[in-house]
Amino acid sequence: MPTHLFLSSGNIIADRRFDFARELLARDEAEAAADLLLQAVELAPDFASAWFALGDIRENRLGDRAGAIAAFRRARDGDTHDRHGAGLRLMRLGAAELGAMPPAYVGALFDQYAPRFDKSLVGELGYRGPALLLAAVSEVCATTCRAVAFARAIDLGCGTGLVGRAFAAVASEIAGFDLSPQMIERARATGVYARLAATDLVQGLAREPPESAELILAADVLIYIQDVAPLLREAVRVLQPRGLLAVTAETHAGDGVVLTAGLRFAQAESYLRTELKRAGLALALLQHASARNENQTPLPGLVVVATKS
């Protein structure tokens, strides 16, 4: 059974059924694991973790799309915060309209991921978002004859501090926001941040004074945001005149926003161009560049730098 968030049912027998199902799945006994999970939810009807695991088995091991949809709906209904991300699985299956990722899901995901984040993202997925952003910002500064130096920067979705470390030499003060408290603690350990907050990114920006930052960075962040407009509006409010917003994004060849098989959002180039203009940002640089790999293949991506006029 893939590593998923586990939320106890409060019923020790149901929880044990879940554990036994995990062991069976590890031995490639998917049908037997599904049967045990059904026993678990009979004992604890709102056992969200068991429903989610059952949906995953039905979708990916048994080829039962209708059964997977039913299980994911029960998982979503069993946890009002949808910390498992069952709603995203329903979107991928075409059983729910495209919508925002639950903040509790993103926070829980990265709390789990935090201890192995750097090793996994950099070592295994070849993550290069911070380097791409630094190169892009440096190129824009060179083109506009300005120094690559910023009095105050904000790192959105700061994670363990990879972007902060990349920009520490060119930003006098860096504030970092992230939904995951565990990520924030690891960012704090880098010593490069003047301030850190575990917060929703739009809400974090909303608490910042107007025209208070020269640079806002968002590496590997838009992949978790279905509608970028609220974030861009707050970024424009917080940026000083001529301030820069630099982001990476996954992209696709069509229009608008799609949810990928990896449960991340990919934004079309045309969509980002439109939303940046609508927010009042002037595009200074847009490059097609991949920030990470998947299955050892670079994912289609964009690096964007925009200026507040």
How do the helices and strands line up, and which of them pair or pack?
Layout: H1 12-26, H2 30-43, H3 48-60, H4 65-78, H5 86-92, H6 103-113, H7 117-124, H8 129-143, E1 150-156, H9 162-167, E2 171-178, H10 181-188, E3 195-198, H11 201-206, E4 213-218, H12 229-238, E5 239-250, E6 257-259, E7 265-267, H13 269-279, E8 281-288, E9 293-294, E10 297-298, E11 301-308
Parallel strand pairs: 1-2, 1-4, 2-3, 4-5
Antiparallel strand pairs: 5-11, 6-7, 8-11, 9-10
Report on the structure:
With about 300 residues, this protein is α/β, with parallel strands linked by helices. It is built from 13 helices and eleven strands. It has helices spanning about 10-25, 30-45, 50-60, 65-80, 85-90, 105-115, 115-125, 130-145, 160-165, 180-190, 200-205, 230-240, 270-280, and strands spanning about 150-155, 170-180, 195-200, 215-220, 240-250, 255-260, 265, 280-290, 295, 295-300, 300-309. The protein has a seven-stranded mixed sheet, sandwiched between helices. The protein has a two-stranded antiparallel ribbon with strand order 6-7. Strands 9-10 form a two-stranded antiparallel ribbon. Helix 12 (about 230-240) packs across helix 13 (about 270-280). The mean pLDDT is about 95.
- What is Rg? 21 Å
What is the CATH third-level topology name of the largest domain?
Answer: Rossmann fold
Number of domains: 2
Estimate the mean pLDDT confidence: 96
Multimeric status of the protein:
single chain
Corresponding CATH architecture of the largest domain: 3-Layer(aba) Sandwich
- Main beta sheet: 7 strands, mixed
Name of the CATH superfamily of the largest domain: Vaccinia Virus protein VP39
Task: Tell me the series of helices and strands, N- to C-terminal.
Answer: HHHHHHHHEHEHEHEHEEEHEEEE
Reading side by side through the largest sheet, how are the strands ordered? 3-2-1-4-5-11-8
Globular, elongated, flat, extended or rod-shaped: what is the shape?
A: elongated
Helix percent reads 40-55%
User: How many DSSP H or I helices?
Assistant: 13
